[in-house]
Design a protein that fits this description.
By secondary structure, the protein is an alpha/beta fold. It contains 8 helices and 12 strands. Helix 6 crosses helix 8. The chain starts with a strand and ends with a strand.
């Protein structure tokens, strides 16, 4: 499990970010002492840092420089400053990406995942599990009770989205948007066909009633 450190002095924003990222199966920690961000970074040893630009005591640029003295941990800036000067400065000081507030949480999640993929061996994180069902995102294979089946890319994308939000309802619109962001355009009819194909394929290896339809809402596992 990857650990995300949030360096954000607005407690409401920080708490919402923490809750959202925990739903994506990240371990999340919040900075408690903004005068000693670097010390907490060393203590927590996160895999990625979400760094606000404007902070008490010292700004995000300062703490990024401090972290860069000893670590190549990816740092994603989150800031309300949308001008090119601040973006360039953040990247110049050692930041790896820059997201402007207010931002879409789903977009932020994909930006985090992209940074982690670039910076770490992602093979472990790409095996998702739920109720004994194992899914390897890299090989597109689902395994259950000694049996294995391979999915198509579209089926795999649907299963990935549902597994990343397990025990929660994924709205049809959210699922279609997720697929669209991976360059696969779908409408509602196409989504229905792909979900039904996925269900039938899972049933072939004994995975029955794994994907539930929430009438008028979406799907869940």
């Amino acid at each position: 499990m990857y650990k995300v450190m949030i360096v954000e002095d607005d407690y409401i924003i920080a708490s919402k970010l923490k809750e959202f990222l925990m739903s994506w199966n990240y371990d999340v920690c919040l900075i408690q002492d903004f005068s000693n961000v670097y010390n907490e970074f060393i203590q927590e040893n996160p895999h990625i840092v979400l760094m606000d630009r404007s902070l008490p005591f010292f700004n995000g640029y300062y703490w990024t420089q401090k972290i860069r003295e000893t670590s190549n941990c990816p740092i994603l800036f989150i800031s309300s400053a949308s001008d090119n000067m601040n973006m360039v400065m953040a990247l110049d000081q050692g930041g790896d990406d820059y997201v402007i507030k207010p931002f879409d949480l789903q977009i932020l999640a994909y930006r985090i995942k992209a940074l982690l993929r670039r910076c770490y061996d992602f093979s472990e994180a790409m095996t998702l599990e739920h109720k004994g069902v194992l899914f390897s995102v890299d090989s597109l294979e689902v395994s259950y009770q000694g049996q294995t089946i391979e999915l198509t890319k579209n089926e795999a994308r649907i299963l990935t989205c549902l597994l990343e939000h397990k025990n929660k309802v994924v709205k049809r619109e959210e699922l279609m948007e997720y697929l669209w962001k991976t360059d696969f355009y779908v409408d509602e009819n196409t989504l229905n066909v792909n979900v039904n194909r996925l269900r039938k394929k899972l049933e072939k290896i004994g995975i029955v009633d794994f994907i539930s339809t929430k009438k008028g809402l979406g799907y869940s596992i």
